[in-house]
UniProtKB/TrEMBL annotation, chain A:
InterPro entries: Beta-ketoacyl_synthase, Ketoacyl_synth_AS, Ketoacyl_synth_C, Ketoacyl_synth_N, PKS_Beta-ketoAc_synthase_dom, Thiolase-like. The lineage of its organism: Bacteria, Pseudomonadati, Pseudomonadota, Alphaproteobacteria, Rhodobacterales. Residues 1-401 form the Ketosynthase family 3 (KS3) domain. GO terms for biological process: fatty acid biosynthetic process. Belongs to the thiolase-like superfamily. Beta-ketoacyl-ACP synthases family. This is Nodulation protein E. Keywords: Acyltransferase, Cell inner membrane, Cell membrane, Membrane, Nodulation, Transferase, Transmembrane, Transmembrane helix.
TrEMBL record, chain B:
The lineage of its organism: Bacteria, Pseudomonadati, Pseudomonadota, Alphaproteobacteria, Rhodobacterales. Keywords: Phosphopantetheine, Phosphoprotein. It holds the Pfam family PP-binding. The keyword Phosphoprotein applies. The keyword Phosphoprotein applies. It comes from Thalassobacter stenotrophicus DSM 16310. This is Acyl carrier protein. Residues 1-83 form the Carrier domain.
Length: 403, 87
């Protein structure tokens, strides 16, 4: 099997519009969550989110592009430009033919759907813009990245709710690992912070009205975010041969399904997924220095996840650092694993562990080192990134310091 | 009005639990009736729709809610309170 490394990273979220800005925010423990600025917010009971603020699409895209690009596609394209720019790759010939784009998203062009349902149902219009369908498609972002960068290999979108990005990156990893591609562009994007998107989540009664406080005893729910994280995964020898800068190595992935409940997480299944990821990466639990938690800030997820980590890592669970950066950027749903992978790369590359901010009260059911409130300097060589989705679909990635 | 609220709440819970109305006792908890966390959230939604009220309930901290869900009788009393506050 081939070794797989990351040679490019790009992002936009409430924490910033580049990897550098995002790492700075994570280092400072800055909170990107604030009052939602969206149409009809006064009709929502949940009025906070990790929104990308100060964003002007016209700075990045022309009129024709904007008419085709939903906000989630715009985010994906911007993050892809940064990632592919950093990787320094130009796609022509055989490389273009074999390189694909595998992205995660849950809502796809949900904002486009929301706006156009308004047009026909609320405003009673009988005509919508001709590009509604190509704009709202869940594969639109992957398609536009492929067009902008001439990527003609296997491209598709994975939808496993909150684990979409991890499933997508796991697929891209396997493509390269099994020799089916030398380079893959992967990650995820989400933009559900529109009236209908937030209203739907509100109905489930799992959202916090004030803050995302993962692992804290007084946590009261999740907070939605938006944005994208895109990476260039590359065959190690391919990267080495061209002298590319390597950000980290992807060493393992595991995916499984609870097959039990549509929303409640399963400790046994999450634990099995973590164990499988370590086995796939051929690492011992004692090597794991940091885990980027799924850490949604709901009562159910956080205690289940801590129990799963404790079960999977055994005695070493007391030594590992585990943090939820959702406390800062919110839950990007289908894009969340991608933005969270940045915290993993920061840990490996910069030796800085992103904190779990808003941590106020210890919870005996989350008795791990959750790196409360302040980033920490630490030399870690192996990290895990957890994603446990609604539907009981889990995906855990394992990464190692750049070789 | 009071009986009416009680009957309506019991009818909603019975439908959710897939039981006959007669089988829903006031002292039962939702768990006794086989209603899980999703069923609870759906019952609250049905109650809000039936009485046109807002039920303050966050699934992450049910104990902090003013809306007591410990038994059918407690839910009836809580709904009566909210309906009263509304009028």
């Amino acid at each position: 099997m081939r070794r797989v490394v990351i040679t490019g990273a790009g992002t936009i979220s409430a924490l910033g519009s580049s990897v550098r800005e995002t790492w700075e925010a994570m280092r400072e423990g800055r909170c990107g969550i604030g009052a939602l600025d969206i149409r009809d917010v006064e009709r929502l009971s949940i009025r906070i989110g990790g929104q990308v603020t100060g964003y002007d699409a016209q700075v990045h895209f022309n009129r024709q592009q904007i008419s085709l690009y939903d906000r989630y596609t715009q985010f994906a394209l911007l993050a892809a430009r940064e990632a592919i720019g950093q990787a320094g790759l130009t796609f022509t010939g055989d490389l273009a033919a074999s390189t694909g784009v595998v992205l995660g998203t849950s809502g796809g062009g949900l904002t486009t759907q929301d706006e156009n349902y308004r047009t026909v149902y609320e405003e009673g219009k009988n005509r919508v813009h001709p590009f509604v369908v190509p704009k709202l498609m869940n594969n639109a972002a992957a398609a536009h990245i492929s067009m902008e960068h001439n990527l003609k290999g296997p491209s598709f979108t994975v939808a496993t709710a909150c684990a979409s990005s991890n499933h997508a990156m796991g697929q891209a990893f396997n493509f390269i690992r099994h020799g089916m591609a030398q380079v893959m562009v992967t990650g995820g994007s989400e933009s559900m912070l529109c009236f209908g998107g937030v209203k739907a989540w509100e109905g489930l009664r799992v959202m916090s009205r004030d803050a995302c406080r993962p692992f804290s005893a007084n946590r009261n729910g999740m907070v939605q975010g938006e944005g994208a994280g895109i990476f260039v995964f590359e065959d190690y020898h391919h990267a080495k041969a061209r002298g590319a800068e390597i950000l980290a190595e992807v060493i393992g992935v595991a995916m499984n399904s609870d097959a039990s409940d549509i929303v409640m997480p399963s400790k046994i299944s999450a634990e099995r997924c973590i164990v499988s990821a370590m086995r796939d990466a051929q690492i011992d639990p004692s090597e794991v220095g940091y885990i980027n938690a799924h850490g949604t800030g709901t009562a159910a997820n956080d205690k289940t996840e801590c129990a799963a980590v404790a079960g999977a890592l055994g005695a070493h669970a007391d030594k590992v650092m585990i943090s939820s950066t959702k406390s800062m950027h919110g839950h990007l749903i289908g894009g969340t694993g991608a933005v969270e992978l940045l915290a993993c790369i920061m840990a490996l590359r910069e030796g800085v562990i992103a904190p779990t901010i808003n941590y106020e009260e210890p919870d005996p059911e989350c008795a791990l080192d959750v790196v409360p409130n302040e980033a920490r300097e630490a030399d870690v060589s192996v990290v895990l990134s957890n994603a446990f989705a609604f539907g009981g679909m889990n995906a855990v990635l394992a990464l190692r310091k750049a070789p | 009005m009071s009986d009416n609220v009680q009957d309506q709440v019991i009818a909603i819970i019975a439908e959710q639990a897939m039981l006959e109305v007669e089988d829903v006792s006031l002292t039962a908890s939702l768990a006794d009736l086989g209603i899980d966390s999703l069923g609870l959230v759906e019952s609250i939604f049905a109650i809000e729709e039936a009485f046109d009220i807002q039920v303050p309930f966050n699934a992450n901290e049910p104990e902090k809610s003013d809306f007591d869900i410990s038994s059918v009788a407690a839910i009836v009393a809580a709904v009566e309170g909210l309906v009263k506050a509304q009028s």
